[in-house]
């Protein structure tokens, strides 16, 4: 049964925005009293919250698919739709959020930090909000935009003051149990610890947290064993405590050899940019299991060698608790020293949200060559959002979209890029929305007097003018006169036989 999860992939679907409403107010003696369609509600966001009461990502291991509520559509009588409820997902402090490409989005290192990982869609405007002095009764509304849909990876990096590193069965879990109130699983076989254990140590006035990193063996930094999977938990620790087994029965192993192997693995592990490398942090050595006579002799033998390398060495026994008090005070001093140094350092840079620069373009037009000719791709937040809000079954809505794009300058930019009438224009990345560009469709929508829900610029059926009707009438009359004259010439030439007239019938009406 899984009890600890420190990495999980989430599949998120934020709520979609509700559609705007098309409605006309009807009152007594006022059958068409003006538009009153309400706006659609915004879709619910999905927010990650750093919660100190949560210590594992286990809640998302079995339920990786999470979604928030959709916004409700608008209604008549200016009733706006309800916004979707925000979905808050509590995660442990120290969780790193990455997108599907592996790019780090945020590091939730402080309790209470919030991050909108999946923004909800925007609700569409109703026809009441779209009304203007020139468009008094819009026959369309804007659609709600879809919310974010995608994958993110949550990676937990334990926040502890001291990290215990060492070979399997070196006694790290026993040491945490002896120093603190934690009760990890302890057994006499390798890889007993399958996930990091945390414990709070109180040594006099010193109070700090200790975590052990399971499964460090030779080659752990290259993926062998469990070490690489849990080495990330060492990144945030202020000091390292090497726990060396002085009572090991494995041939070819001794405290010095074990220490050199662990040091090579720690050196090979790359910490994130800006953090102190693992081997440059304060390090102490604990020679464990000295309650065994042979182990005490070996500890006395290797201690001078370790001290000559600059390590503070402590001989301890988790069974008899010998040396644990001195070790706890020494660790507390290192933690206090690291905290005092961190307090003098400048605060970590905050995430600053800056508005778009004034001169930054709202969109770009990129000509792209292909086997079927050049296409012109329009990329930008506004054009892509406007396309998503347009109901292409409504001609008036399409005309409104054309006007918005023209006011934004898309028309002029397409001309500069070399587009001509009939060119293929794609708005948005990937497949996007494809148009056959017609420049004549991008102006004076407010001045059109077409019925609601239609746009004369998109209607191929055009009413002929009086001059055109008169010209057509004269052409038809001339054609009929010419046909009668032709029949008369054929009669005179004797083409029609006997008593048959020009209609091809005899005097008695028989054909």
TrEMBL record:
> Mostly located where?
cytoplasm
Q: Which cofactor does it need?
A: Mg(2+)
* Region annotation (Disordered) ranges: 63-82, 446-511
Q: Where does Mg(2+) bind?
A: 173, 193
- Boundaries of each Obg domain copy? 2-159
Q: Give start and end of each OBG-type G domain.
A: 160-336
- Keyword Amino-acid biosynthesis annotated: no
Q: Which GO terms describe its biological process?
A: ribosome biogenesis
Q: Which GO terms describe its molecular function?
A: GTP binding; GTPase activity; magnesium ion binding
Check the record and name the NCBIfam families matching this protein.
Obg_CgtA, Obg_CgtA_exten, PRK12296.1, PRK12297.1, PRK12299.1
HAMAP family per the record?
GTPase_Obg
Q: Which family does it belong to?
A: Belongs to the TRAFAC class OBG-HflX-like GTPase superfamily. OBG GTPase family.
What is the protein name stated in its UniProt record?
A: GTPase Obg
- The gene is obgE
């Amino acid at each position: 049964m899984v009890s600890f999860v420190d990495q999980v992939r989430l599949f998120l679907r934020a709520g979609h925005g509700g559609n705007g409403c098309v409605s006309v107010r009807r009152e007594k003696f006022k059958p068409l009293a003006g538009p009153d369609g309400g706006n659609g509600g915004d879709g619910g966001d999905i927010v990650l919250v750093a919660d100190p009461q949560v210590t594992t990502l286990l809640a998302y291991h079995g339920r990786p698919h999470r979604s928030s509520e959709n916004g409700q559509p608008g209604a008549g009588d200016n009733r706006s739709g309800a916004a979707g409820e925000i979905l808050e997902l509590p995660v442990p402090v120290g969780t790193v959020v990455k997108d599907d490409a592996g790019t780090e989005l945020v590091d939730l290192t402080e309790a209470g930090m919030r991050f909108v990982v999946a923004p909800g869609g925007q609700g569409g405007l109703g026809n009441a909000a779209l009304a203007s002095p020139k468009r008094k009764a819009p026959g369309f509304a804007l659609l709600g935009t879809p919310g974010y849909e995608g994958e993110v990876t949550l990676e937990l990096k334990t926040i502890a003051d001291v990290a215990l590193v060492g070979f399997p069965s070196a006694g790290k879990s026993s040491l945490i149990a002896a120093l603190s109130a934690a009760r990890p699983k302890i057994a006499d076989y390798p890889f007993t610890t399958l996930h990091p254990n945390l414990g709070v140590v109180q040594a006099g006035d010193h109070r700090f947290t200790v975590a052990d990193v399971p499964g460090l063996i030779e080659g752990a930094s290259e993926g062998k064993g469990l070490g690489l999977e849990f080495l990330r938990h060492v990144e945030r620790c202020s000091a390292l405590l090497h726990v060396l087994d002085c009572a090991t029965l494995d041939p070819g192993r001794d405290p010095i050899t074990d220490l050199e192997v662990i040091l090579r693995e720690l050196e090979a592990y790359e910490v994130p940019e800006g953090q102190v490398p693992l081997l440059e942090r304060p390090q102490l050595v604990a020679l464990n299991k000295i309650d065994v006579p042979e182990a005490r002799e070996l500890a006395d033998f290797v201690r001078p060698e370790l001290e000559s390398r600059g390590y503070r060495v402590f001989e301890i026994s988790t069974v008899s608790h010998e040396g644990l008090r001195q070790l706890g005070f020494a660790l507390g001093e290192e933690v206090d020293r690291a905290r005092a140094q961190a307090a003098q350092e400048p605060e970590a840079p905050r995430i600053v949200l800056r508005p778009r620069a004034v001169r930054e373009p709202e969109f770009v037009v990129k000509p792209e060559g292909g086997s079927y000719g050049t296409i012109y791709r329009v990329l930008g937040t506004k054009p892509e959002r406007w396309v998503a809000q347009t109901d292409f079954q409504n001609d008036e809505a399409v005309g409104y979209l054309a006007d918005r794009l023209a006011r934004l300058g898309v028309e002029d930019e397409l001309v500069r890029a070399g587009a001509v009438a009939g060119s293929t224009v794609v708005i948005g990345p990937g497949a996007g929305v494809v148009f056959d560009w017609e420049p004549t469709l991008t102006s004076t929508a407010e001045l059109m007097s077409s019925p609601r829900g239609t746009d004369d610029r998109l209607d191929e059926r055009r009413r002929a003018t009086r001059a055109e009707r008169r010209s057509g009438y004269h052409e038809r009359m001339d054609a009929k006169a010419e046909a009668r004259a032709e029949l008369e010439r054929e009669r005179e030439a004797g083409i029609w036989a006997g008593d048959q007239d020009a209609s091809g019938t005899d005097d008695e009406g028989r054909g």
